[in-house]
Write a structure and sequence with these properties.
The chain is mainly alpha-helical. The chain is 83% helix and 0% strand. It has helices spanning 2-21, 27-42, 46-64, 69-84, 88-107.
Length: 109
């Protein structure tokens, strides 16, 4: 667990630096938020992990557009997150959105 605590601190520091040196809507900020959310889940802090995942999705959609593979990855992460907390309706919603996006992306529907 100590390693996750160290990782959390390092990612929070990286997030501050990236927001300051780049801008709040940069893809690198989204990537850091995603990693921070994963660390928080592993630390059992789901309440703070969820906003990280939502903000990651928002930034990726804003910067990369709605039909990007990283947006699909964010939808998947949120689907798995909701499955893990037994909110299956929301989990299915996000996973179905991910699958529709991947179908459009890979098969050009």
């Amino acid at each position: 667990m100590k390693e996750y605590g160290n990782a959390q601190q390092a990612l929070e520091d990286a997030l501050r630096i990236r927001k300051h040196s780049l801008h709040a809507n940069h893809v690198a900020v989204a990537d850091t938020l995603h990693l921070l959310g994963l660390v928080l889940v592993n630390l059992g802090d789901r309440q703070n992990a969820f906003p990280c995942f939502k903000e990651t999705l928002r930034i990726r959609k804003h910067v990369l557009g709605s039909n990007n593979e990283l947006v699909a990855d964010s939808l998947n992460t949120l689907g798995v997150f909701f499955k893990e907390i037994n909110e299956y309706g929301k989990a299915v919603e996000y996973i179905l959105s991910e699958l529709k996006l991947r179908n459009r992306t890979y098969f050009h529907y």
